Amino acid sequence: MTRILAYTDRISVAPGGSVQVKVSCDGLDHYHARLIRVIQGDVNPSGPGYREEVVDLDLGGPIPGRFQPIHAGSYGIVEGAPPLDMGKSFSMQALIWPTLPGCGPQTILSYEDPNSCAGFRLYMDAAGALAFQVTELQGNSDSISTGSPLFAQRWYLVTGEFDADSRTLTVFQVPQISTPKVQDRHKNSKVSTIGTFEAGSDAVIMIAAHSGCERPALEHFNGRIEAPKIFTRLLDEYEKVNPGTAEDRELIAAWDFSVGISTDRIIDASENQLNGLLVNLPARGVTGHFWNGDEHCWKNNFDHYAAIHFHDDDLYDCEWETDIEVKLPDSLKSGVYAVHLQSGSEEYYTPFAVRPPRGTRSAPVAFILPSASYMAYANNRIGIDVPETEIVTGRLVQMNPIDLFMQTHPEIGLSFYDVHNDGSGVYYSSRLRPIVQMQPRQIGHLGGVGSNLWQFNADTHILGWLDQLEQPFDVITDEDLENEGGQVLEGYKAVITGTHPEYYSVGMLDGLQSYLNAGGRLMYLGGNGFYWRVSFHPTLPGVIECRKSEDGIRVYPPPPGEFYASFTGEYTGLWRRNGRAPNELVGIGMVSQGFDCSSPYILTEASRDPRVSFIFEGVEGPVVGDYGLSGGGAAGLELDATNHAWGTPPNTLVLATSERHSDLYLMTPEDMDDPAPGLGGSEAEIIRAEMVFFETPKGGAVFSTGSIAWCGSLSHADYNNDIARITGNVLQRFLDPTPFPVM
Amino acid sequence: MSRYRLSDEDLKYAVEFRANPLGTPSPGLQRVLNLLRGGPKKGKYVLIVKEPFRRWNLGRMPESRGEPIEIISEIEYTDLAEAEWDVFKRRWKESTGQDLEQELA
Q1: Which fold has domain A75-310?
Q2: What's chain B's average pLDDT?
């Protein structure tokens, strides 16, 4: 059972600052809360043991538990609409591109009194046909349907109207492409049984949903809506058939979704200016009815991107009330912390970083907590939605309590590894919701034979290693790097990445590059880093966008014309397709993935180069890392290797390489231009992890491992092993201010 | 989804799997596993963790989001190799109608 859920308002906070914890309990009267420092989250009995440090801070309690719901589903809402008046004729019209017709009633446009639900509603009925409903204040309603289900992914001009004189209801659905033997153009009318309607009641207009008493919105639309309009008149036949021809007479509102694409606002182009707000971030910057392939960037032709794609499972911000406000002591050292909530056997951890105060450092080393990658993977359903996971991991999928919970509670939201209920890809992921996988103690699906950790909990292998070294370190999150750029890393003698810092924004990449340009030392202790380009929203906190354009290992391809981020207008996809391959930054780039067993590294001749003698002090080789909690070896899960064509610096030394992996390791699609037999790990030479080192200008250096599994080997034999020795040797030399020779 | 169909020629791969269910498979066994581990989500065998790293129940996946995962509480494993072999036999029987233990006896 998972009966406590929580999230924090912030992912990074300085000592003396406050964190708001939002909690929901399912049937628990009370819970206890405490602040802990996360040291080692791996609960594998074969591992180093779970470790946390309790902070002496009274968080109050026992705290009364309360249930706070999650209302997934996106929609637009417009307050301040003119009062409803059924004494006048009334029309609603929109272009729509439904994606799940026939999957329950789905609202296109509603104009209702939120208390009585009196008003008008244009929608698809349960069978997927266009319908129009009128409800009077007493609750009596009447509706009409075309009776002809709409086809998915086909544009229609749809109109619903009420003739006040004849009391007639009419619906009309007009496909925008006529197709032989497909009869989906239909019109229907009837005289309504509804009698009178009192004018003057309050009204709310909603797009892609309608108002409900028990939740903010009901019967969400799945698919695209463009140019919705409301009139206080009837439309003529020509206006009902031809999009964009309805004259702006007696207009209540005409929303133009091509305006403000990067925002959560919708703009009414009529003189009434009934502007509205989008809830739960439906997809914008998507192709509309008029898109014809001439333009692929929404910034260059707004008219072709005048649609919004709504989903009944979109979720941005749960908007829960705060249950605990944690005021951090001024003396609290930087680290990864969590508020631990517990009621009997139920528990939940809400992690966040305590960073040093802005403009200061409290340790010589910075660990970059890859919070953007945590968001990208947030509540991913790889283990429960993707049946191929068992094949690619080479073993039965294990369902932990959080998996059982996510399966029955999909409202908790999706990740960049999921598709929406209608099969379209997920463009946005937020942290303003419980992220059940981002907790210590949690076990993943892709972490290999052994501990099977992924992302946050796998990164605690690094925290545990630093702790046993008694190495002081600061924690800086991706959001800090995004917000403050390279300045936040200035002065650190060494910077350490997480095990899988896959998602990087341009601000983060610039920040890390500027640190290196200034002579910094970077330890890239993971694999498949700096792979996808993401965009933070310019104003909305805690949310990123990623569209996996062109190629790369991905769950879905974005459709044509949608390769530019709606948040910023940036071209999306792999960083190597954006001219900044990870090879330039860290010497290596992603070449393969497999999730069963990991392999050892074999030291190369270059490992004996005097330039790197400090790395291998106490290391015999040639085999290193044939052990570990992440697949049983140090080279595994996702692998990086050098490629000078993609920017590996010419002074890069390949110190070690893994030589053989299972055939569950396959080449990446971006390297598979002309598929031929022998693409698996037992045959393809490209499938290898390469450990590299190179010096940078101004006396800096980069050490990269090229393997997510690397840090799973650190604790082997109580941290007395070659992987820990190599990593420790690099760290000690990087802490030495002596510049690395440039010549 | 694999189009491969099992035959008696594959019994030797069943023997290989039984000897080391968690090992690296030969190409022939991998082809068998691609078939047996493939298939749609609905009804797929999974392990339900009762105690991390120690005890598991057999489970089966539902078709759609929101539906609970079936927990077969009367089938419990304390060893992952044992679980793999048990599920392998179940899938073999569902695919061929053959009782693998009898075939290999």
Answers
A1: Jelly Rolls (2.60.120)
A2: 96
